């Protein structure tokens, strides 16, 4: 039997039932000055004055450069744009540039081209024209010397000279438009013209005039004034 003091009392109005695991034992007294964690002014990290690195005065490390030395700049390749000062709109330097829309102006206009390179250009045109004339004349010369059987050879040489003249003229146009590849190709053709000139001097062929003009043109396009057009 239980005594009257041990009989459980009903809960008072406005009180909460004890939660299991959170109720201190009977008679427990917290230490003096103790406050629960919620009353110690705790703030989450977002409220403790944190700033991202971009707002903390970060500066990139200084570059190590010796006094008096110029700052480094990446190398710049050849300029692909056509030379400035031309009297018409030319294709870029590093393209083939086969365009017949304004071929007449491209053929005759030398505005903005250095004098030495202009001379070289017209010498290449002259070499192409003289080659055609020489091979046309050789048709009749071969006929008188070797007879009618040589006419076929003369005609073949004449047709070939027409094709070569067209190639010479087109590459010469690209030369005065500042195409570096055109100067390289014409330099090779100029080397062949030297060998041809030495041979034609002994045979007294009319083609020696064309070869002589090509050799002179190859020299003129490498003079210092001409080279500025390809910078």
Task: Give an overview of the whole structure.
The chain has a domain at 119-230. It is built from six helices and no strands. It has helices spanning 103-108, 115-146, 151-176, 180-203, 208-220, 224-227. Helix 3 runs antiparallel to helix 4. The longest helix has 32 residues, at 115-146. The chain is rod-shaped. Mean pLDDT is 79; it is low at 70-75.
Lay out the secondary structure.
Blueprint (H helix, E strand, L loop, with lengths): L102 H6 L6 H32 L4 H26 L3 H24 L4 H13 L3 H4 L4
Give keywords.
mainly alpha; 6 helices; 45% helix
> What is the general shape?
rod-shaped
- What Rg do the Cα atoms give? 47 Å
Class from helix and strand fractions: mainly alpha
Detail the poorly predicted runs: 70-75
Give a short summary of the structure.
With 231 residues, the protein is mainly alpha-helical. It has helices spanning 103-108, 115-146, 151-176, 180-203, 208-220, 224-227.
């Amino acid at each position: 039997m239980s005594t009257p003091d041990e009989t459980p009392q009903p809960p008072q109005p406005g009180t909460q039932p004890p939660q299991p695991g959170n109720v201190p034992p009977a008679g427990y007294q917290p230490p003096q000055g103790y406050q629960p964690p919620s009353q110690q002014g705790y703030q989450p990290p977002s409220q403790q004055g944190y700033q991202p690195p971009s707002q903390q005065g970060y500066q990139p490390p200084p570059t190590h450069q010796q006094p008096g030395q110029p700052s480094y700049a990446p190398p710049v390749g050849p300029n692909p744009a056509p030379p400035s000062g031309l009297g018409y709109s030319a294709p870029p330097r590093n393209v083939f540039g086969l365009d017949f829309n304004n071929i007449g102006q491209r053929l005759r206009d030398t505005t903005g081209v250095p004098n030495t390179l202009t001379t070289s250009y017209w010498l290449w045109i002259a070499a192409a024209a003289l080659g055609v004339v020489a091979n046309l004349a050789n048709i009749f010369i071969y006929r008188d010397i070797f007879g009618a059987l040589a006419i076929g050879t003369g005609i073949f040489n004449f047709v070939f000279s027409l094709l070569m003249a067209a190639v010479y003229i087109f590459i010469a146009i690209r030369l005065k438009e500042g195409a570096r590849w055109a100067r390289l190709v014409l330099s090779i053709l100029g080397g062949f013209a030297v060998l041809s000139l030495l041979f034609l001097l002994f045979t007294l062929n009319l083609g020696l005039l064309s070869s002589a003009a090509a050799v002179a043109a190859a020299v003129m396009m490498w003079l210092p004034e001409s080279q500025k057009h390809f910078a």
